[in-house]
Write the structure tokens for this entry.
Amino acid sequence: MAAFRPATMPDAVPLLGFATPLFHTGRNTSVRRGQRWHGAPRACIEYAPGQLSAPLELRTELRRFDTLTAADLADEHDPACRTPPGLLAVMQQLYPGFEQDETVTLVHFQWPASG
């Protein structure tokens, strides 16, 4: 029997969760509040209930939200978030109190996962 390792263990690959798990083929971007995901080398994605991807390599960058452009968001996984106003509406829904001058982390990954 395989040993169960909860995602909270330090050596576990973290789970990058999504309120809207929509992805397109190729590079996808997800914008996260704060710096928690900055520098994370990899993560798994729950792309359907109970279905986890293989570990994905991540590229991350820190930005101030109010500097983001539609070009920065062209690869956003959620079509509703591909413009700054659309993303702001979603961020304020997901993160009550979110302000436009906050630091966000852009998390980039390739979909589908390989491996």
Notes: The chain has one helix and seven strands. The helical segments are 84-94. The longest helix spans residues 84-94.
